[in-house]
Structures are given as structure tokens and as C-alpha cells.
Design goal:
960 residues, alpha+beta, seven-stranded mixed beta sheet, 29 helices, 28 strands, 40% helix
């Protein structure tokens, strides 16, 4: 261990060089201990290795020869529970500060700029007991990325000026999310816990809790907290790259052995989370949104080993089951609930809860006693007849299949999973751990279920009609607490209890898990069937080698006009279909066979994903429900209320989200407003839905895309079966355009939306002149070059807000660039001036960019564009996206990559200048003025949008 004088940057740098070099030499002579017996799925091509560095840091290495991107994650077993009560948010603040310069790389923008230049992404988060940092980037840059990353934990600078600046970023984050419902509800619940337990403390932090005080400078406390808690023995690191394991091992030892180790123990609490007077308890919370929720929360014994061996697993699966006869099914058909979840709730170091969560309808909120009583009836039924080996073996088989055919994800997600798991499981189970099941133990399960009783329950009711005589300190959430009344006899519950039953054996667990080899399989989807009303595209996978498939079936009726009424009918119809499939589809989802029926660009799309063994059976039931939908007045009423409630609640989203949504709406002729949809949904009747179904499937055309473990014959059979059920008669047309986008001219259009929020927001959208690949390439490169400086200048340096980002926003094929800020410190007119000033100043930066820098950005973009799909489903989704946009050669990415390679630096400089500083391109500005800000003056030479229909009618349309 060594002490660092953080007041001397030069000393930091020299010490870092000396220590790093010394540790690297030490590592040559003292090899880290390692083992190679990590259990992995049989089809996983990667090699894994566990090692422990001399400083006791635990490391998992992943050498994946198929990876086209690399990544790493560091999990530090330190979180908000570790911070002093008088410094709320200190752990979160520290997370922010580690990104802002180290002794070796002092530039505060250096890390983000490096990642952006090399096709990378990075982020971090702080939880109660862990802080997690992660990144991914080009394979070729992994070593330097790890070097920069490791310095976070060796020699961060904690620059005084940046401490002041980043404190405002934490404040902005707090302000931006002050009306987020989960945070508001959580804050109220925290105030009802033992104030001596860290769970009860404010974890986010703001300028008050993190402000300097006499004799207490927050920078000093940051450094002290870092030195005290960031010990190597509390860290778990995962690295993924395509280099061999010996190379990754050397890099890990070379770059991370210098992290100091103080042999600090992870936090162990003995303070009870609830005082004797706080459990059992009833807590009534008043939300901002129109939501109604109920949670039955039971305190249960907490033991760390339950992460790997969980006796709650069987009854959690049974209690949360949604099949016929389940608690969910009975309550749903009573019209009382729309959702039920059960499982782990709070896990707070020395405490755990088992929660049963309900989303209630407006009717259901008046039947709380019946719902609670019926839940206990079902718990009794599970105790008496449900804890059987059959259910245990079924859960075990499902989890074994999930492990055996596990889908991989992005490098950052993979390494985050591994680093997190290494904090919970022995090294050999770092992959297998979440899929492990305990041996069947009836008594252990019954012992856990014994805690699920009324006198051990916290009842949490979230309802706008509640009255709250308390308000939490940080989010101003009204709530009330009261004694939980003893259970009482409730009329009608015994009759409802007779409808309850335990689920039968799951019919969707696959029995045929064979993989179909086909040496003649195409490398891209090809059209294998084309007849009147039916078109089938197919690729039989030979790369991932798993018994899964993705099937997309689009049912397109070109005669259906996208009016507001038809949009309302379609939403109601799809919600009713989803509702009708709930009980039948739940066991399919449990077994690893998923489905979705949704609106897509060309019509209604049925998507099947998962094990292909039972897909035809599931499809037949889906079609049966779609075509022969039984519409009951009670269910229609509930569905309509839910859609209307969701639309109303969208008006409570964060300002920048609403501004982005409004931008999309203004650019799409066929997209109605929330108010228009609500007005159209309210009067819909059962007869309206029935008539709509007939219209919907009249002269329908079907396009099917199958990718995965399906033969051409099976794909055609699925398409023909769908065609037979739907009775299609129309040939697929080359022109399937049903939508109209808005093409901007060279003016600036402004829309200010009224929102009830303290923060202001602004979205500035620039639209390309055409959708040629060359144009798409230029806009993609501009986005790559713009992302990091826009964030660093307006967020890190100017501290305009926590939400500051730039990115693409396409209108079908036509590209666009979107600049977004949500701010607690400035009104939209100020934000626009800041954006315009940045764009003007950055023009000089763009002109000065070197050929080498430009090429680095280009290669970063290409690596992201051409990266290998991590799993079968992500590739399938990409194929479907190509089809939706008419790129049926499925080579869009390669074609765009060719255009990007051909784009010159001068073309990008010229396009930047014309787009942002000239007057050749149009732009659309959507904003809201926060309640803490005053009226916003419109910039000169802008056109206010006072009538959306007139705005859309005055501009040309883009048909797609």
C-alpha cells in the first residue's frame, strides 16, 4: 500500500510510473494464481480463465476469437451504503470524478474522447453495495483502453475545479429525475425504514449534501473515501478481447497490479432495516402519474449463499405464474389487476424481502382486501400441494437449457455480467451461477414460505387518491403510514379461491434440441417462395449452431388507411390479442419460446423467438386468437382504460423524452397526438373491434422472414399455414408505401410544448437532403465526430445539464442529426445560443482535424458498423430492420461501409459547415420551458409551429 499526495500532479505521475513499472517487473517473477476450470456452455467458442493478482484483485479473462469488439468491467464492492450519513451521494459523486483525469492521462476529456474516437462506449453506475465501471471499443485499442481504465483505480486527480463542476452535474442528475416515479416511491419507502440503516439514506446526492462546509471540504472527503474504500481485494475485473489468454493475462497483471490493496473487508451490517414498530406496516404513497400499485412485502432471512442456492425459487415461480388457474389469471379476469410479479425485493446487505407486486386497475384499487386474501389462499395452496419434485425438475431443466444455449450479448454487457457474478459466486460458477438450481429440498422451501404471513408483511399502496400527511425530504413525495389491520374475512374470496389451481406440466419445454446441419445453406436470407399473397425469405443458420429460430410474419393490408381512428383501433386490437394470449403464452415464455404481436412499419408483425421445436404450435394459437378474438365488454373497458392511462402518463415523462417524441410526431404525417388518440379510443365498442378485424385481414399480404434452425421447407410451411388461416389473396407489391414523412425546407421551425417540470429541454434536429448511401455515410461520420466534443463542451465544461447528447435520427432511410439537452440551469433560448456557439466554434476544430485523427474516427465507426452479431436474435432483428427499409439484398451495412471508406475528410468538413452554419438545410427545434425559467424568446428567422396540420401541409412529403 502507498499513500498518494493528491495535491501534486507531477508527484502523482512519477509515482504512477514507478509503481506501475515496479509491479510489472514484480509480476514477471510472481505469477498470479489462476485456474481454467470455469464452467461454460458447450457451444461457447471463447476460452475463460480466472486469476488473482498479487494485490488480491480477482480477474476473469475471456479470449473470444469471434469477437469484433473488446471490453472490460470493474466491479468495486463499495457503494452508497459505505458513505458517511452526513455525505449523502459521496459514492455516486466519486464514480463521476474518476472519469475526469488521472495522473497519466490528466486531460478530463481524454477518456471519453479516446473511447468515442475508437468506436467505444463507456459508463458506470453506483448501487447500494457496488460501483461498476465498464467500456467497450475496437479490438485493436484494448490495451490502451485498459491502461486508461486502470488509472481510475491507481491515480485519479480529483482536480479542484472539476470537483466544483461535477458537483453541479450530480445536482443536474438529481433535478432531472426528481419527478421520476420509481425514485419518488422509493424515497418514501426509505423514510419508513430504520434511520440508522444506510438503506434509509439519500444515495444520489446533490449540491446541498455534497457542498463544502466549515472544516469539511468535499474534495478532501472524496479522496479520503477513495483511499479508504477502493482496495484491490474488493475489486473484480472482467476483460474480453480476441487476444490469446496469455496476452490478456499479461495485460491484466501489467496494468492492474499497481492498484493498492489495504485488505479492507466488505461492509457487514448488523443494524436492522426495520425497527419493531415498522413491521408490519401499511404505507400509502401518492404518485404523480395515474398509476395504482400494491406490494405485499415480506421480510425473509438473508444469506449470501442464497444467491447460488435459493429455496424460494419454486414458490416464486408458482406464485408469479400467469397460466390458467393462476392467481394472476383469476385476478385479471375479475378486472382487478393488469400485472403480477413475485420474487426478491430489497436486498440490503443484512436484509432481504420477498415481494408480490400488483398493478391494479381503477376497479382493483377498491378490492385490496380481496386481492390480499386470495393471495394468501394461493400461498396456502402452494404450501399444501405445490412444493413437488415435478416443479423443481421442470425449473431445473429450463435453466439447464438456458445455460446450454445461452445467448451472448455485447462485450460491455458480457464483462459486466462476469464482474458482477464474480462478487457473488465461486470462480468456477462465474457463468453457470445464475443457472444453478439447488437439490430438491421440501423443508427448506417450506421454512422460507413460513415467512409469508400477514404479521410479517409491509403493505405498500400507490394510488393518486391516497392522502399523505408526510413528505420525503428529497423528492417531496406525499405518503402516510399506519398500522396494518389484522386480516379479516372477505366476502366472495372462498368462491374465487375455487378457481385457483396449480399449473400443469409445461407443454412448451423443447424435446427436440437437435441442430440441422446444411452445407448448402445461404450466407444471407434469400427469397424461397413468391406467390399471390405470400413471400417467404429464409436463411438457415450454420454459425451459431443452436436449436433456436427467429420468425417474423408481417400481415400487411395496403388498403388500410393510417387514420387516427384506425390507429386507435389497432392499438386496442393488439392489446386485446396480447391479453387473450396471456395465459397460453406464459408457459411458452417460461420454456424459452417468446412471441410478440405488434405494429410494425408495414402492418402487424408476429415475431417468434427461441427454441424452434414448438414454434408451429404456438403460431397456430396466436393466429387463432388474432382471427377469432373474443371481445368481452369488461376486458375491452379495462384495456381502453389502460391505454388511456399510459397515454396520459407519457405526459409525465422527462422533458427531453417528450421533446424527442414530439420531434418524431411532427415529422410523421400519420402519427396522431396523445390527445387525439385518447379521444379516438374512448368511444370504441366491441362492434367496432369486430368490424376492424374483418377489414384488417381483408386482402392481406404476408411476408415471412425465417432465420435460424429451420429448413426451407419448414419456413414455407409456416408461411403457407399463415396464408391459409388469413386467406390472403393479394400479391406482394413492389410499392408498399403507407406512410408519409415531412421534408423540411431551409427554414428553422420551432415548437415549444407546455410541460409541468422544473427543467427545460431542447431538441435541435437537422435533416439530410436525400437518402443516398453517400449522404448516410457523411451523416454517420458527422455523428461520430460530434458526439464526444458536444458532450464534453456543453455537459462537462459548461454544465448545462445532466442530459446532453447528440446522435442520429432517421426518417425511414433519410438520415438526420439530433442535439439534445435537458437543463435545470437554462431556458431553451439560452440552450439554443449555447448549441449554436458550440457548432460555430467546433467548425474550426473540424477544419484542424488531422488525417490520422479522421482515420481513427472512421475506423471506430466501421468497427461498430461491421461488428459481429453477438447472438442469433440480434442478427435476426438486423435482417428484419433491413427488410422494413427495403434493403432486401441484406448487405446494407457492407454497402454503407464502402461509402464511409470513400468519404473524404474535406467532404465531412464541407457537410458540417453547410449543415450547421449555412442556410441550405432545414432544422426543427422542439423545446419546453421549465417552471423555474421564464418565457423564452424565439430566435430570429424562425417559423413558430402554431398549427401542426398546417405545418405538415405546407411541406413536401416523403412516402415510405
Amino acid at each position: 500500500m502507498f499513500n498518494i499526495n493528491y495535491k501534486s500532479t507531477l508527484f502523482n505521475y512519477l509515482l504512477n510510473v514507478i509503481v506501475t513499472a515496479g509491479m510489472a517487473l514484480y509480476a514477471i517473477w510472481t505469477l498470479p494464481a489462476f485456474a481454467t476450470d470455469i464452467q461454460k456452455p458447450p457451444l461457447d467458442p471463447a476460452s475463460y480463465e480466472y486469476l488473482e493478482l498479487p494485490n488480491k484483485m480477482k480477474v476473469v479473462l475471456v479470449s473470444d476469437p469471434t469477437a469484433t469488439k473488446a471490453g472490460a468491467t470493474m466491479n468495486v464492492a463499495v457503494g452508497s451504503f459505505d458513505e458517511p450519513a452526513e455525505r449523502a451521494g459521496l459514492a455516486h459523486f466519486l464514480e463521476h470524478m474518476l472519469f475526469l483525469g488521472t495522473a497519466k492521462y490528466p486531460d478530463p476529456d481524454s477518456y471519453h474522447s479516446f473511447m468515442s474516437k475508437h468506436g467505444g462506449t463507456d459508463n458506470a453506475y453506483t448501487s447500494a453495495e457496488n460501483t461498476v465501471y465498464y467500456f467497450e471499443l475496437d479490438n485493436a485499442q484494448l490495451h490502451e483502453g485498459l491502461d486508461r481504465f486502470s488509472q481510475f483505480f491507481i491515480a485519479p486527480l480529483f482536480n479542484s475545479e472539476l470537483v466544483e463542476r461535477e458537483r453541479m452535474a450530480v445536482e443536474s442528475e438529481y433535478r432531472a429525475k426528481v419527478r421520476d416515479e420509481p425514485r419518488r416511491i422509493g424515497a418514501a419507502l426509505m423514510e419508513t425504514a430504520n434511520p440508522a440503516h444506510p438503506y434509509a439514506h439519500f444515495a444520489v446526492g446533490n449540491q446541498v449534501t455534497l457542498g463544502d462546509r466549515p472544516g469539511s471540504m468535499v474534495r478532501d472527503e472524496l479522496i479520503s473515501f477513495y483511499q479508504q474504500h477502493y482496495s484491490a481485494n474488493l475489486m473484480t475485473l472482467a476483460i474480453l478481447g480476441n487476444e490469446p489468454l496469455p496476452v490478456l493475462r499479461q495485460w491484466a497483471s501489467e496494468l492492474f497490479s499497481a492498484i493498492p490493496n489495504s485488505d479492507r473487508s466488505a461492509l457487514q451490517l448488523d443494524t436492522p432495516l426495520y425497527l419493531p414498530t415498522q413491521n408490519p406496516l401499511r404505507i400509502d404513497v401518492v404518485p404523480l402519474k395515474d398509476i395504482r400499485q400494491m406490494t405485499m412485502s415480506f421480510s425473509v432471512p438473508w444469506r449470501r449463499e442464497y444467491y447460488a442456492i435459493d429455496p424460494t425459487e419454486i414458490f416464486s415461480e408458482l406464485l408469479g405464474h400467469e397460466g390458467y388457474g393462476s392467481l394472476y389469471s383469476v385476478l385479471k379476469h375479475q378486472g382487478w389487476i393488469t400485472r403480477l410479479n413475485s420474487g426478491a425485493g430489497i436486498v440490503a446487505n443484512n436484509f432481504a424481502s420477498f415481494d408480490v407486486d400488483f398493478d391494479l386497475t381503477e376497479e382493483g384499487i377498491h378490492h385490496q382486501d380481496q386481492i390480499i386474501a386470495l393471495t394468501f389462499k394461493y400461498i396456502d395452496l402452494i404450501k399444501a400441494r405445490g412444493i413437488k419434485r415435478r416443479f423443481h425438475d421442470e425449473v431445473t431443466l429450463i435453466k439447464d437449457n438456458k445455460f446450454r444455449f445461452r445467448d451472448k450479448s455485447s462485450p460491455s454487457n458480457e464483462t459486466t455480467l462476469l464482474a458482477n457474478n464474480l462478487q457473488l459466486y465461486p470462480p468456477e460458477f462465474v457463468i453457470r451461477g445464475p443457472y444453478q438450481t439447488n437439490d430438491f429440498n421440501l423443508q427448506a422451501t417450506l421454512d422460507m414460505m413460513a415467512w409469508l404471513r400477514p404479521d410479517n408483511m409491509r403493505l405498500i399502496i400507490v394510488d393518486p387518491a391516497n392522502n399523505g400527511d408526510h413528505r420525503d425530504q428529497w423528492y417531496d413525495t406525499p405518503y402516510a403510514v399506519s398500522a396494518l389491520q389484522p386480516a379479516k374475512a372477505v366476502q366472495g374470496v372462498s368462491l374465487l379461491a375455487k378457481k385457483l389451481s396449480l399449473p400443469p406440466s409445461n407443454p412448451f419445454i423443447p424435446t427436440d434440441l437437435s441442430f440441422k446441419r446444411n452445407n448448402q445453406a445461404s450466407t444471407l436470407p434469400v427469397k424461397i417462395h413468391d406467390s399471390i399473397g405470400l413471400e417467404v425469405w429464409h436463411q438457415q443458420d450454420q454459425e451459431f449452431g443452436i436449436p433456436k429460430a427467429d420468425v417474423f410474419i408481417t400481415i400487411d393490408n395496403a388498403t388500410r388507411a393510417l387514420t387516427t381512428r384506425n390507429t386507435a383501433l389497432l392499438w386496442a386490437y393488439l392489446a386485446l390479442v396480447d391479453d387473450a394470449l396471456d395465459e397460453y403464452g406464459y408457459p411458452a415464455n417460461m420454456a424459452g419460446l417468446y412471441y410478440q404481436v405488434s405494429q410494425s412499419l408495414r402492418g402487424i408483425t408476429i415475431q417468434l423467438h427461441g427454441y424452434n421445436d414448438k414454434q408451429a404450435r404456438l403460431l397456430d394459437t396466436i393466429l387463432d386468437n388474432m382471427l377469432k378474438l373474443k371481445v368481452e365488454d369488461t376486458r375491452l373497458f379495462t384495456i381502453k382504460q389502460r391505454i388511456i392511462r399510459d397515454l396520459i402518463n407519457m405526459g409525465m415523462d422527462r422533458p427531453y423524452i417528450q421533446s424527442m417524441n414530439e420531434t418524431s410526431r411532427l415529422l410523421n404525417l400519420n402519427q396522431p397526438s396523445r390527445e387525439e388518440l385518447i379521444a379516438a379510443i374512448k368511444p370504441l365498442t366491441r362492434s367496432d373491434i369486430k368490424t376492424f378485424i374483418k377489414t384488417l385481414f381483408g386482402q392481406a399480404r404476408i411476408t415471412l422472414l425465417a432465420h435460424g434452425n429451420l429448413s426451407p421447407e419448414q419456413a414455407i410451411a409456416l408461411g403457407q399455414h399463415t396464408q391459409h388461416r388469413v386467406s390472403t389473396i393479394a400479391r406482394v407489391s413492389a410499392d408498399r408505401s403507407v406512410r408519409n414523412g415531412i421534408l423540411l425546407d431551409n427554414k428553422t421551425y420551432v415548437q415549444n410544448i407546455p410541460l409541468q417540470h422544473d427543467d427545460s429541454s431542447i431538441v435541435v434536429y437537422y435533416q439530410a437532403h436525400d437518402d443516398d448511401l453517400d449522404t448516410q455515410a457523411r451523416f454517420a461520420l458527422l455523428q461520430q465526430l460530434l458526439y464526444s466534443p458536444f458532450f464534453n463542451t456543453l455537459r462537462t465544461e459548461q454544465q448545462l445539464g445532466y442530459v446532453v447528447n447528440s446522435g442520429g435520427q432517421s426518417l425511414y432511410r433519410r438520415p438526420g442529426i439530433r442535439l439534445v439537452i435537458q437543463s435545470s440551469v437554462a431556458a431553451p433560448d439560452v440552450l439554443l445560443r449555447k448549441i449554436d456557439a458550440f457548432l460555430a466554434e467546433n467548425d474550426n476544430v473540424m477544419s484542424a482535424i488531422t488525417d490520422q485523427e479522421f482515420e481513427a474516427y472512421r475506423q471506430g465507426l466501421l468497427s461498430e458498423l461491421l461488428k459481429r452479431d453477438p447472438n442469433l436474435s440480434s442478427r435476426s432483428q438486423r435482417y428484419f430492420g433491413f427488410m422494413e427499409k427495403g434493403y432486401t439484398d441484406f448487405r446494407y451495412q457492407e454497402s454503407l461501409a464502402t461509402a464511409i471508406r470513400a468519404t473524404t475528410k474535406q467532404q465531412i468538413i464541407d457537410t458540417y459547415h453547410q449543415l450547421f452554419l449555412g442556410h441550405d438545410y432545414g432544422r426543427l427545434i422542439v423545446s419546453n420551458t421549465g417552471q423555474r425559467h421564464h418565457g423564452t424568446a424565439l430566435p430570429e428567422q424562425t417559423v413558430p409551429i402554431t398549427d401542426v396540420a398546417a405545418f405538415r401541409g405546407s411541406l413536401p412529403h416523403y412516402r415510405y
